Amino acid sequence: MRTFFCVLLVVLMGGCIRTVDELSVDALPIDRVTKPNVICFISPQDTVLAAKIAMSEPQIVSSFTESLVVKDAVVFLSDSIRTIQLAYDDRLRYYRAVPQGRFPIRPGVTYRLTVSMTGNRRVTAEATVPQAVPIDRVSLDSTVTRNTANAALTNYTTTLYWKSPGNVTRYYRGWAEIEQEIVDDGTGSRIESRISQPTFFVDREAGPAGVPRLMAGSHSLLTAPKTTTRTQRIRAGLLTTDENYYRYHTSLREQFTSQSQNFAEPTVLFSNIAGGYGVFAAYNGSYITMNEPVSKK
Prior knowledge:
By secondary structure, the protein is mostly beta strands. It is 11% helix and 47% strand. It is built from two helices and 16 strands. It has helices at residues 2-18, 243-259, and strands spanning 35-42, 49-56, 74-78, 83-89, 94-97, 110-117, 121-128, 137-146, 152-163, 170-184, 190-196, 203-205, 212-223, 227-241, 277-290, 294-296. The strands form two sheets. Strands 1, 2, 3, 4, 5, 6, 7, 10, 11, 12, 14, 15 and 16 form a 13-stranded mixed sheet that branches. A hairpin with a 3-residue loop joins strand 6 (110-117) and strand 7 (121-128). The longest helix is centred in the first third of the chain and has 17 residues, at 2-18. It starts with a helix and ends with a strand. This is DUF4249 domain-containing protein.
């Protein structure tokens, strides 16, 4: 389980860091100001605390190319009682710490990230960890189409269900890992195994307690004819996020949308980093595993 949560952290960080490197320089604002760009997410499920820091010109883009990565910053994460330092890992190219119980990330607690750099440059940010919301159940539905090569394209929808705690506005993101195997219909032998991660977007809710809620993510499989796809296991998580996480990922999605529209105004990425760019945000996950196979031709 520790390995699973480490992988989840890397996936979440990797997705946010990697996808903001591709914006054209032509789309950048005129008033380019060089500032530290910080990405850091924390969760009670973390076994590793991690932050990535680079110098980035405009707020519209987060660049983490090798030449811009900051390697000599002093990075601290603190609450009202404890402080832990994140050290730079030259192989991974980000700052990290393994707390091992010395620095727990707890729901309801506000954490402060402080990054100090040469030239008396210093940036800070705060994030409060939300309470987790349990998942009631998970469903997996599929629709099969046939393409011109007579292969099967199966579109899967993974849906998470929960009941709203109510009273306050809450922010969510889904996560799932679907393990499936492709079996030959004639021999019954396994042809290959695949692991997919459905695409979920962030969402928010506000309403009375006890109201059923749901969130859906999707992925697709292209398989040969005369085969059956068997779902072996589903791992799913409902991430309750803070507003920083929600606003950052919403602006990130809007940026990608505007890139595909030639005449659209560039979207400025949300940032809560005082003195810099980027985001320091928190989330709290509840997880469920289903081991019942589901077959679909």
